[in-house]
Write a structure and sequence with these properties.
By secondary structure, the chain is α/β, with parallel strands linked by helices. The chain contains twelve helices and 20 strands. Helix 1 runs parallel beside helix 8.
Length: 415
């Protein structure tokens, strides 16, 4: 393997893989490096939901009064490992600061712009790489089972509609026609037409990686980056466990592990934390649902996949090093069961935990500084924003105008 490339991408999740493929397809040679396998982190275990309707920051003032109840509920969507409270506090204080009206509004408007472009980018990405068998842009549902929740849901839908986040209010009859497996305690919901889901994340990663290699791209797996350095604005080098490599551009796309990589090249202390998420995969539940169904009351999502039904969600603050608490994944069963008419078959079910990379302002870092490009911090929306991030980074590399203003994603906002 050669040691010099035009572009080196550090991080083989869906963000880094999409960037590498898009840049390689535009005639620039790329080396893709990951410390594990391609698509093995959060990109493997996420909910598979292309959630362009999620246009609000992760910290919403309206949920503040509910946090104590969530933390005390063993089936709740939020858990804090109290042993991690001290290192988490600086990030959490910044997160709370961003709940103020002015930053909250700015973040919300920026997410609307980014997710609107994300939908168009995914449509083009699916067509270009022939992914229609793996990515279904057929919409998703947000449902309610309490009258007061249903009223809030209708208000939420009307508010989103006024923001051009398209949705359709559906009553119980139409809901059960769309998803006959749902129980009659589900009173209605919102249908979001401009969303989608991936039916097989592993196959998606494999197909994208195969296309990348066929175009001449190179992949190094089980290759940890030890150091990153540069001698000029036009070249940088990475030192890895498999040798040293030089590129005109080095893209840092390491997800939740990007903070340590950024420290190698910048004095900026990016407020990046991991919101640990869980899933439970039910291989005996193929065909139960048609599209993703999220519960506003229960705060989790059920996504139909080729390998079964994936129950996913929740937020756990415990850092990168604490062992997984797989009971969190198994808690999805008692959450999901009452929503469905027939009992769930949990035979051969598999739990999983992964790390979502979240900045304190809920916005990713997508920026170009000298020989370095930053593309990380997409919180719960890594899959959703993968294709648009690849388009933006490709524009950086080929010195083309970006389809949206990238100023809000600058790494220097954290100075």
């Amino acid at each position: 393997m050669k040691s010099q490339y035009s572009v080196i991408v550090v991080g083989g999740g869906i963000i880094g893989l999409s960037i590498a493929l898009t840049v390689q397809a535009n005639g620039t040679d790329v080396l893709l490096v990951d410390k594990n396998e391609i698509g093995s982190g959060a990109s493997f275990g996420n909910a598979g939901h292309i959630a362009t309707e999620q246009v609000f920051p992760i910290a919403d003032p309206s949920v503040l009064k509910s946090i104590p109840k969530m933390l005390l509920d063993p089936l709740g969507p939020l858990r804090l490992d109290w042993r991690y409270l001290l290192p988490l506090t600086p990030w959490m204080l910044k997160l709370v600061g961003n709940m103020r009206h002015k930053p909250f509004t700015h973040i919300h408007q920026t997410l609307m712009t980014l997710n609107s472009a994300a939908f168009d980018s995914w449509q083009a990405f699916i067509q270009k790489w022939q992914l229609s068998d793996l990515v279904k842009m057929q919409g998703s549902l947000l449902v309610a089972e309490k009258k007061e929740t249903l009223e809030k849901l209708h208000q939420h839908g009307e508010s989103l509609q006024n923001m051009n986040v398209h949705n359709l209010v559906i009553d119980q009859t139409e809901l059960l026609e769309r998803e006959p497996a749902l129980a009659t305690n589900q009173l209605g919901g919102l249908f979001f037409p401009n969303t989608g889901h991936v039916v097989d994340l592993s196959k998606l990663h494999s197909k994208l990686a195969q296309s990348f290699v066929e175009l001449g791209g190179n992949i190094l797996t089980n290759c940890e980056v030890i150091a990153i350095s540069s001698t000029s604005n036009k070249e940088a080098s990475i030192t890895t466990t498999q040798g040293k490599f030089t590129g005109q551009k080095v893209v840092i796309a390491g997800g939740a592990f990007s903070k340590s990589l950024v420290k190698m090249v910048s004095r900026i202390n990016v407020p990046l934390e991991t919101e640990r998420g869980y899933h439970l995969m039910l291989p005996q539940e193929q065909g139960r649902l048609n599209i993703p169904v999220s519960s506003m009351d229960r705060r989790f999502i059920m996504t139909p996949m080729a390998g079964g039904l994936r129950l996913a969600g929740t937020v756990e603050y415990a850092g990168l090093k604490r062992p997984a608490n797989m009971q969190r994944a198994r808690h999805f069963l008692p959450l999901a069961a009452p929503m469905l008419k027939a009992p769930l078959n949990d035979a051969q079910s598999t739990p999983w935990m992964g790390f979502r990379p979240s900045t304190s302002d809920s916005l990713p870092v997508i920026d170009n500084k000298g020989p370095y490009i930053f593309a990380f911090g997409h919180q719960h929306l890594g899959l959703t924003q993968a294709a648009i991030t690849a388009d933006l980074v490709n524009s950086f590399i080929h010195e083309q105008p970006t389809v949206i203003d990238c100023t809000p994603f600058s790494i220097e906002r954290f100075l």
